[in-house]
Amino acid sequence: DGRLKVTGAATYAAEFEVANLAYAAVVRSIVANGRIAIDTAEAERAPGVIAVVTHRNAPRLAYQPHKGLPDAAVGERLHVLQDDGVNHQGQPIALVVADTLEQAVHAAEVVRVTYRNEAAATDMESVDPVLPSGKPAEWEIRRGEPDSAFEQAEFRVDQTYVIPRENHNPIEMFATIAAWEGNSLTLWDKTQWVHNVAEEIAAVFGIAAENVRVISPFVGGAFGSGLRCWPHVTLAALGARVAGRPVKLVLSRREMYYGVGYRPHTVQRTALGASRDGQLQAIRHEGYQETSTYEEFTEALLSATR
Q1: Could you tell me which residue, 132 or 151, shows the higher pLDDT?
Q2: Torsion region of 202: left, alpha or beta (phi above 0 gives left; psi -120 to 50 gives alpha)
């Protein structure tokens, strides 16, 4: 598909033409942990506004159990606009749907939010080493006697490597167009895994997966960030259901930093012991990484040496 992309012939998720399209903008939390009270009166009176959706008036979503391959093994997915709780900075707390993008963005800017800010854990050193599942956050896999083998090795290397958080930020920003027809939903979505999006959204709305059609012929870069179904997809579908017409939601470049995941901060200590002829005699690999306080996800940090 390279020629189509470089010549501008490829059609991406945000570029499909859908009749009677409305536009959405997201209001996001500026705190990392706490509770909110929200005043949408001015936004509701703004020109062109069709709906302002918050936890106070959003339809209750089914959020049936669903675990796709890249999803967390333990913990709760973010239930979008279902309560007044804030779990992370940038979390969606309101959705504005309007006739034009400019009207949606303006109305989102006049939504008034009052925060009850609570203490937030912002680094690995400030939290208890217990996962959301209740399991200890440390475990060990051992074969043989690596400590003694390392000490006896003629050549030894023992180093610590620190990698900061890394954001994907591909050229194409994430976008979704959602259109309902009865109990069937069509999504034009930027994704690397259309089947996972269909199954996840079906579980969120409590409908059959065969009732969700996902269209994604081209992806303008993703680096793995397109493997999960992020909250903006649910927001687009929710907005379309409330508005009674198709809705387009395109993330801004700023929103790409906190709306679609990232590679977590990690600390790794690697110790290698080898003989003079280069044969490895010992490997010790310790790794620490951050994860969510409400959803447990583990990168395959130690898979190469395990």
Answers
A1: 151
A2: alpha
In which band, very low, low, confident or very high, does the pLDDT at 269 lie, cut at 50, 70 and 90?
A: very high
pLDDT at res. 73: 53
The residues near 68 (Cβ < 8 Å, ≥ 6 apart) are: 193, 196, 199, 200, 228, 229
Please, are residues 102 and 248 in contact by the beta-carbon 8 Å criterion? no
Q: How far apart are CA 182 and CA 88, in angstroms?
A: 34
| 218: enclosing H helix or E strand | none
Give pTM, 2 decimals: 0.90
| Element counts in the chain: helices (H) and strands (E) | 6, 15
Pick the CATH number of 2-118+167-257 from 2.40.128.120, 3.90.1640.10, 3.90.1170.50, 3.40.1190.10: 3.90.1170.50
What confidence tens digit (pLDDT) does each residue in 19-48 have?
999 999 999 999 999 999 999 999 999 999
E strands, 149-306, in order:
155-163, 175-181, 184-189, 212-215, 247-250, 266-274, 280-289, 295-296
Domains of the chain, by residue range, sit at 2-118+167-257
